Amino acid sequence: MRKFVIVLVLCGLTSCGFFESKEEKTQKLVQKELNEIDWNAVDAYPIFENCDENWTQTKQRECFENGLLEHFSKTLSEFEFVLDEGIDPIVQVDFLVDEEGKITVTRIEKDTAIDRQMPEFDGIIRQSLLRIPPLAPAIKNRIPVKAKFRIPIVLNVNQ
After folding, report:
1. Contacts of 141 (CB under 8 A, 6+ apart)
2. Which residues contact 149 (CB under 8 A, 6 or more apart)?
3. Considering only CA atoms, which of 50, 54, 26 is closest in space to residue 133?
4. Taking the CA of residue 142 as centre, how many other CA atoms within 13 Å lie in the half-sphere pointing to its CB?
């Protein structure tokens, strides 16, 4: 009887998991794992075919960003856009790469004068993504995930 009381007291003092169900233990373990994940970072960035999935995260990100900027640059060079002086030439493009590698524009932030001088700009950016080379999605814990990105595009200013 003494041993039983001592075990009971020890379990009570050390919060022994002896009486916890497997479900409760699993729930606690899963919750602990979820709390340790940095949800604002990915393990691997989306990559184009010419990028290497074994590169460091920094190199993957650079390759991804350079691929996007190159694509936008080629697209915009097909048009004759020249802005007047005094207009902020930086356009911030926010987009989402989904779990399948499909890319969509979520927001375009720019000087309102750009809208007046180039009302078709947003449409051109959105259309250009339909012709973007295939992308592999971002990876988090070996699972393809959605990832948001922002790319600055600098337009030429009339001088």
Report:
1. 37, 43
2. 64, 65, 68, 94, 95, 96, 97
3. 50
4. 0
**40: which 2 tokens?**
């604002």
pTM (2 d.p.): 0.68
Q: How far apart are CA 80 and CA 83, in angstroms?
A: 10
Strands 143-145 and 135-136: unpaired
Q: What distance in Å separates the CA atoms of residue 18 and residue 29, rounded to the nearest whole number?
A: 16
C-beta atoms surrounding 50 within 10 Å: 9
Token couple for 36 = 């340790």
d(CA 150, CA 38): 19
For 17-39, how does the pLDDT look when each residue is reduced to its tens digit (9 = 90+)? 556 677 777 777 666 665 555 55
Instruction: Return the sign of the alpha-carbon dihedral for residues 126, 130, 132, 134.
Output: positive
* Closest C-alpha to 128, from 154, 157, 105: 105
| pLDDT reported for residue 5 | 47
Return the closest-CA partner of residue 142 out of 37, 52, 44. Answer: 44
Distance CA 34, CA 124 (A): 40
